[in-house]
Amino acid sequence: MTATELSLSAVDELRQLFNRGQYEALLTRVNQFRKRNKKISPSLDHALEAARAFALIYLGKSEQALPSIEALLKLKNPPFKEQISYARAYAAWASNERVTEAIDVVSDFTGADADKLRSQLLYRAGRYGEAAELYGRLLQEARDALKEKKHPTATSRWRFAGLGSRSAQVTPPVTAVEVEQLTSAVNELATNAMASFILAGDYQELPAIQEGLRQSYEVQYNAACKHIAVHDFESAETSLETADALINSELDEEVDDVEEATSPLFVQQAYLRHMAGDIESAKQSYYQIITGRRCDAATLAVAANNFTVAIGQLALGKSGLSITQDGTRALSKQQHEALVEGLKKMKATASRNVMRKLTSKQRQAMARNRAVLYVQIGRLDSCRSEIEMLKVHYPDDVLVFLVEASLLAKQGKLEAADNILSQAADTQVVRAARVQLAAAYDNKDGAAQLLQTLFPDEPAAVCTAASFLEQCGKVEEGFSLLRRLVSRSSGQLKEKANRELAAMLLRNGRYKESAAILRHCTSTAKKDMLSTAQLVVATSHFDPDDADRIASVLHDTGSSAVEQDAEKLEGLPPPKRKHMANRIPDIGENNQYRALDASSSHGKKKSKKKKKRLPKNYNPNGPPPDPERWLPKTLRSGYKKKKQKRDQVSFRGSQGADAASAEEAAQKMAEKPDSKAAQQHPLPPRARPRLQRRKKAKK
Q1: What one-character-per-residue DSSP string does 284-346 give?
Q2: From CA 235, how far away is CA 273, in angstroms rounded?
Q3: Cα distances (Å, whole numbers) of residue 214 to 179, 188, 556, 690
Q4: How far apart, in Å, do the first and last CA atoms of the chain sit?
Q5: Could you tell me if residue 76 is left (phi over 0), alpha (psi between -120 and 50 degrees) or otherwise beta?
Q6: Whole-angstrom distance, CA of residue 645 vs CA of residue 651
Q7: Residue 586 DSSP one-character state
Q8: Rg of the chain's alpha carbons, rounded to an integer?
Q9: Non-local CB neighbours of 156 within 8 Å, separated by 6+ positions
C-alpha cells in the first residue's frame, strides 16, 4: 500500500468513527496509527492531530484539545482550517479561556451553529444584553422551522463540516425524530434566552418567550429567578414548588440523581427565606447542602457563600455587642471562629473550574462578600487584595469604593477615605456613607455641611443636619436651617418641619417661640397629643395658668395603674441618670433643667483613699518606713545569703564522695579513645551500692 492509499484509508476510517460517535475509539486508532507508521507525511500527521482535537472536544476535554488546536492554527495551510478555528472558539467557551478573542473568531462564521456558539460566548463573557438579542433571533428561527416542519438548522450538538458532514441532493421529509429534535432545540433556546434576558434586566420579552413552551423544571426555575429579581417572593416560591414537582416526575427514582438535580431548587428556596428575614432557617438549609446533600460544584459554591453571609448577618444582629470607634461591632470569639470557618468553606468550594461555571454577577457578588467579611473579622490585608481584584474586573462597582474607604477610616485617614468616596459614582449610598464617615468620628459640623450639600432637597436630611449643628453648639444655625425648611415646604412636610423646630426651641429654652409654633400645630391637628404635651411644658415656664388649662385637654392615654403588672414594674431596673447633666444644653442662667438636676443630685461620689498603715512609734519627721517591711526577710531586695563554714570542704554525693575526685576520674575516662560515652556525657557522682537491710532480731 502506497503512502497516498495509506493516508486515504486512515482518513476514511477516522471519518467513519467520527460519524458513528465513537470518539474514544478514534483516539485509540490515531495513537495506534502513529506508533505503527513512524514515517508519515506532515499533511497526514496534521490531519490525525485535527481528528484527535475534534474527538477530545466532543468528549468534553476541551483543555486537552487546546494545545493541538493552537499548534495547527500556526501552520501555513492547516487541514480543516475553518473547522479548527471554529473548534478553537468552542474550546474557549468550554474552558472559559480567552472568551473575548473567541467571540471575534466566531463572528467571522455564518450559520445557526456559529450564532449559537457566539451567544454562549457572549453569555459567558457577561454581555447578557447581546446574548439575549442573539438568543431571541435563534429562538424565532427555530420556532418557524418547527411550525413549517423544516429540517433543524441548530441543534444541541456542534457539527464540524468535513468530518461529520453528509451530502444529500434531495431533502427528505421531516421524520418524527427530527420533530422531537426541533422541539428540544426550541425549549433549550428558550431556556437560555430567558436566563439572558433576566440577567440583562429586560423582563418585557419573557412572556413571549414562555408562550407555547413545554413545561420543564428549567423554565420554572428561570421564572422563579425572574420573580426574585423583581422582589416578588410569593410568585417565586410558587414557581420553585412547580419546578420541584416537575423534576421529581421527569427523573428516575434514584435518590442520588434526584438530590443532585433538586439541589439548585433547595438553595433557591433557602435564599427566599433568607431574603424574607428568616436567616437562621436559611443558614440551616445552606449547611445541609454543604455537609450532606449531593449537589453540583457550582451549587455548592453558592451555598457556601450564602452560608457565610448568613453567619455574618446573624453576628451583627446579636444584641450586646460592643461598638468600636469606626462604627463596626466587635465579634465574640465564637462568632469570629464561625466566620473564619465559613470563609474557609468559601475558598474550598470556589476553585478556578467552579468559578467558570458561575455567571459574572455571581462571581462579583462572591468577591464583594469576601471583601466585606474580611473587614468584619479584621483581615485587612486579605481585604485589600480582594479590592484590587475587584478594581480590575469591576471598576465601576460602588461597593469597592465603600470597602476601601472603610479600610482607610479604620486607620484614621478620614480625608483620604472621603476622597475615595468622592471618586465613586454620585449615588445616594455614597452620599450617605460620606455623612456617616464624618459623624462616626465626631465631626458633627462636617456631617451637617455634607448633609446640606449632598441632600439639599431632603427634609429628613435637613432635620438631621440641624440636630448635628445643635450638638456641636451652633444652635442659631440649626434654627435658621429649620426655618428655611418650613418656609419652602407645604402640607404634611411643613407640619413635620414645624414640630422639629418647636422641639429644638423647647430643648434650648426658647419657650415662647416654641409655644407659638406648637399652638399653630395643635390648632391644625387637634388629636396630636405629643404637640399638646410639649405646649403644656413650654407654656408652664411663663404662664402656669394657661398651661393648666391646656393640660385639661389631654385625655387618658389608655393605660391605667390597674392594667400594669406590679411585679413586672418592680423587676425593671432603675433609670440611669449618670450622664443626664451632660446631655442638657448649656444656655446660661435660663436653664432651669440643669439647675433642677444640680439641686436634686448630691454631686459625684468621691472615691475614698486607702488609709496607709504605719508602724508603731512612727515619727513623721524621721526617715520613711521600709515599704518591704511586710515581706519575709528572704524575699526582700536587700537580703544577702550568708554562707557559713566557708573553710570546710563541701561534700557531695552519698557517703562523702567529693566532686574533685569525680571530675578527675571523668577527665581520665574522656582521654581514652574507645570511651565514646564518656566524651559525650560527664560521669555522675559515685554512690555506694544499696545493701539489703538487716532484719532486727526479735527480743
Answers
A1: HHHHHHHHTS---HHHHHHHHHHHHHHHHHHHHH-TT--B-TTSPBPPPHHHHHHHHHHHHHH
A2: 13
A3: 14, 10, 65, 99
A4: 123
A5: alpha
A6: 12
A7: -
A8: 42
A9: 184, 185, 188
Q: What is the pLDDT of residues 523-555, one digit of tens each?
A: 877 777 888 888 888 888 888 888 888 788 776
List of residues 6+ apart from 158 with CB closer than 8 A: 57, 90, 113, 117
pLDDT of residue 55: 82
- Calpha distance 439→446 (Å, rounded): 8
Q: Which fold has domain 3-165?
A: 1.25.40
Contact 433, 421 (CB under 8 A): yes
| Partner residues linked to 329 by β-bridges | 323
Q: Is 98 left (phi over 0), alpha (psi -120 to 50) or beta?
A: left
Distance CA 420, CA 405 (A): 6
| Single pTM value for the model | 0.60
Helix (H) or strand (E) holding 554: none
122-146 per-position pLDDT tens digit: 888 888 888 888 888 888 888 887 7
Q: In Å, how far are 267, 281, 337 from 311, measured between CA atoms?
A: 16, 12, 11
Write the pLDDT tens digit of every residue in 422-459. Answer: 888 777 788 888 888 877 777 788 888 888 887 877 88
Closest CA to 175 of 139, 157, 149: 149
Architecture of domain 359-441 in this structure: Alpha Horseshoe (1.25)
CA-nearest of 29, 37, 31 to 13 is 29
Furthest-apart CA atoms within the chain: distance in Å: 135
Rounded to the nearest 5 percent, the helix, strand and coil shares of the chain are 65, 0, 35
Any idea what the Cα angle at residue 430 is, between residues 310 and 346, rounded to 5°?
Answer: 25
Q: What is the DSSP letter of 99?
A: H
d(CA 496, CA 459): 9
Is residue 214 within 8 Å of 221, Cβ to Cβ? no
**Residue 323 pairs with which residues in a beta bridge?**
329
User: Grid coordinates 414548588 are at which residue?
Assistant: 241
The 10 Å Cβ neighbour count of residue 399 is 19
> Are residues 335 and 315 in contact, defined by beta-carbon separation less than 8 angstroms?
yes
Domain ranges of the chain: 3-165, 359-441
Q: How many residues can be counted in the chain?
A: 699
Q: Report, as an integer, the average pLDDT of 283-295.
A: 84
Backbone φ, ψ for residue 323 (5° rounding): -110, 130
**Structural contact between residues 417 and 410, judged by C-beta atoms closer than 8 angstroms:** no
Q: Cβ(305)–Cβ(284) under 8 Å?
A: no
34 Cβ contact partners less than 8 Å away, ≥ 6 residues apart: 40, 45, 48
87, 71 in Cβ contact below 8 A? no
Confidence of residue 165 (pLDDT cuts 50, 70, 90): very low
One-letter amino acid at 184 equals S
For residues 426 and 541, give the distance between their C-alpha atoms in angstroms, rounded to a whole number: 48
Q: How far does Cα 528 stand from its chain's mean position?
A: 45
Whose cell is 423582563? That residue is 203
Q: What is the pLDDT of residue 166?
A: 43
Please list the residues that pair with 320 across neighbouring strands.
Answer: none
Q: What is the DSSP letter of 108?
A: T
**Closest by CA position to 498, among listed 507, 487, 508:** 487
Are 3-165 and 359-441 in the same CATH fold? yes
Q: Residues 118, 135: contact at Cβ < 8 Å?
A: no
Residue from 230, 216, 200 nearest 265 by CA: 216
Tell me which of 204-213, 612-621, 630-639, 668-677 is least confident.
668-677
Q: What angle do CA 436, 440, 441 make, to 5 degrees?
A: 125
